Amino acid sequence: MNLWQLVLTELKAIVSDKAIAVTLFGGVLFYSVLYPLPYLHQVPTEQQLIVVDLDHSSLSRQLIRHADASAKIQVIGQVGSITEAKRFIETGKAHGLLVIPEGFRRDLLLGKGVTLSYGGDASYFLIYSAVAEGLVSAGMDAGKQVQLIGMLAQGKNPKEAEQNLNSLHLNSVPAFNPSLGYTPYVVPGLFLLILHQTLLIGTGILGAGQWRSRSYWQQVSPLQLVCGRILAFMLIYMVFTSFYVGYCYHWYKVSIQASLGQVALWLLPFLLSTAAAGVAMSTLFSRRDLPTQVLLLISMPILFVSGFVWPIALIPEPLVLGSQIIPAVPAIMGMLELNQMGASWASVLPQWLQLWGLFVLFFGLAILGIKRRVRALAEIDAS
């Protein structure tokens, strides 16, 4: 059996195996819709806000109206104490609180500094950011109104006073996430993680189901089997990857900074190292259900150590160093830098070389693992 015959045999084994076919074809299509679904309403607006007004003045009521008029927040009510406001946040009825101190109007009219206190649920960074941004904007608007009243009282020309208030304009232009939403931020990393996990599960199920039975895998050398199996899965995942990076990126309006050639060059060692890791991992199992169980358990830790949903600085350093042997970790970070942030190829070159190093490592481990399986089966036959 030559290499191409082996590849065809591997493809038939993959397609005819219901568990593998559902994991690969069903999983990739299903997750392309399921995972991005919670992030489709990606720009947080109208976040519920509870107000603690200790001043009860005309100016504090004006500030509350300014806050409610903001597109970022919605005032849902007022309470008499911070403790009551916290209960709203703890029960999920509100995402933020605003505390207007006693003497707010008096101190502003006297030209004294006033501190507005605000806070919220920081479990979701973009929601917390929306609350903070809306309140800061409302506070600045209220401050400008007080300044305008003071200038007019001093006898300044209304037009001159208005120009002095608007002397500083903030022009905020997002560099890497134009919509400031969840989808362009989360989806690119999630798609690579889906490809990584399904590829590992597919190769794991295929190998684990064969090692204890006699089949075509014994008719070829371990080197030829590893090459044929990796090539077979690569042919399938070239289609899956094109679907994710091509159609899905366009459908979900994910920003693209790199060229097609750079993306293809980056994904090549990622898919090769993942396929080799899957073959090597499969030699550790003799039950078809175990690869799926193990990989589902470690999928969330991989998501966090990848660094795009949780800051790397907040993860223990030994865990970060240990995660570098997982192909998805350098692949996700490098892909985000290259394709979403417009980094140069030189800046991601170390991670690209790391993926090639992981491919060589897992390729060697896969051959050793298959040789061990061959010896174990021979010992069973001898006994």
Fraction of residues in helices?
A: 55-70%
The largest β sheet comes out as: 4 strands, mixed
- What would the average pLDDT be, to the nearest integer? 83
User: How do the strands of the widest beta sheet line up side by side?
Assistant: 2-1-3-4
Shape call: elongated
Sequence stretches where pLDDT stays below 50 over 5 or more residues = none
User: So how many helices?
Assistant: 14
Radius of gyration: 29 Å
Tell me the quaternary state.
single chain
Order of helices and strands: HHEHEHEHEHHHHHHHHH
Structural class: alpha/beta
Q: Report strand %.
A: 5-15%
Distance between the termini: 29 Å
Count of DSSP strands: 4
Can you give a write-up of this model?
The chain has 383 residues and is an alpha/beta fold. The chain is built from 14 helices and 4 strands. The protein has a 4-stranded mixed beta sheet, sandwiched between helices. Helix 3 (58-69) links the parallel strand 1 (47-53) and strand 2 (73-79).
Give the topology.
Elements: H1 3-16, H2 18-34, E1 47-53, H3 58-69, E2 73-79, H4 82-90, E3 96-100, H5 104-109, E4 117-120, H6 125-153, H7 158-165, H8 183-208, H9 222-251, H10 260-282, H11 290-305, H12 317-322, H13 328-340, H14 345-382
Parallel strand pairs: 1-2, 1-3
Antiparallel strand pairs: 3-4
What's the short story on this structure?
With 383 residues, the protein is an alpha/beta fold. It contains 14 helices and 4 strands.
